[in-house]
Amino acid sequence: MSATATKTPPPAAPRVGKPQNRRVRFTPAVVLLVIAAALILVSAVRAVTGANDVTSAGQIAGALSSAVPIGLAGLAGLWSERAGVVNIGLEGMMILGTFFGAWVGWQTNPWLAVLIGVLGGAAGGLVHAIVTVTFGVDHIIAGVAMNILATGVTAYLAKKLFTGGAAAEKGGTPKQSPPMDDIKHFTVPGLSHWLSTIEKHHWFLISDLAGIVGGFVTHISSLTLLAIVLFAGTFFVLWRTSFGLRLRSCGENPVAAESLGVNVYTYKYIAVIISGGLAGLGGVFLAIQTHFYLAGQTGGRGYIGLAAMIFGNWRPGGLAMGAGLFGYADSLQLRNGGPSVHALLLLLAVLLLGMAIWKFLRGARIGAAVALAFAVLLSIWYVTTDTVPDEVVQATPYVATLLVMGLSAQRLRMPKADGVPYRKGEGG
Questions:
Q1: Tens digits of per-residue pLDDT, 246-267?
Q2: Which positions ≥6 away from 315 have C-beta within 8 Å?
Q3: CB 3.0–4.6 Å: which of 69, 180, 208, 369 could bond 282 by disulfide?
Q4: Global pTM?
């Protein structure tokens, strides 16, 4: 052994300065811890403010009903964008689902309405795929055109199909279809009543849990259960099968996918048609929920679904959380939400205070100051008022959309080839 053997260099001293920005890994334990902390915080706000409707079974059930069409629209966007096709036309495909589902539903039964509504949305997806995939039209322009086209077509057909004969006799108008039957709902016997009894005691945390769980086991629509299955199925298909791997490769690097023998056009077509069908299902859910088609009843839920998808980082789990948040905010305005939204001002102030502390500890002084300033303003608003105006309540879902998008924008990772034009043969 040589006497001049190279010495092993000493380990580098740790760097002193700004702490490294390490992302938190959302393991099941971390997710459960976050959920538990959120429940305790919401329960504390409910107890302090007396706004018992914040965690009531009725509020949670309303949030679930509002979240389903938003979640289905977001799931539709996930399928399309994972294959590399931006689908701004989700709103139009939802409109097609509401119209064709209601058109069949008032004449037959709600399950046939679901099928036709899905096919109507899928037809819109097919048109979008032809325009974007085959002809290479800009995805954003094609999506906006789809929304305009769907609005015009359904308005024309409503005047033709709902204003004469049996449709007119049963209440049809140029902007509304005749009423149709509701779809089957489910309630867990015994458990629902027991949870309702516990909720009425308004015990800290226990009654809040009872109200939240009660909202999931009382008068649940069959389509809600179907939506849950579709979310689980989407995760399995896209992340656990070879078909899903090929489809996602078309959204990440279509040239490399083609060089490996993947028919990129076929997978893009399949993804966008499925996307249209899911958006149509979200639309027909709205029609069945209200018992008829009504012009403008989608109310921008296609766009909110896209926001939920982006918030969820193009994954089903995060998308479900985003849809649930937007659905909860939407449910507030339907349940005399002035006192509840006023209570949420305090909740938001506490969350912003926590964010300010977190950012300060990570060295983001400006971000911490901004969060602290908003926390103080919201606290003042809460202390000096007893409720919030109806205009603020009605805008709550859209304000929630803007806040969530703004807070989550720095941690997003979209498919690399999402929206990028692709021509067959580029892979050589």
A1: 999 999 999 999 999 999 999 9
A2: 78, 235
A3: 69
A4: 0.88
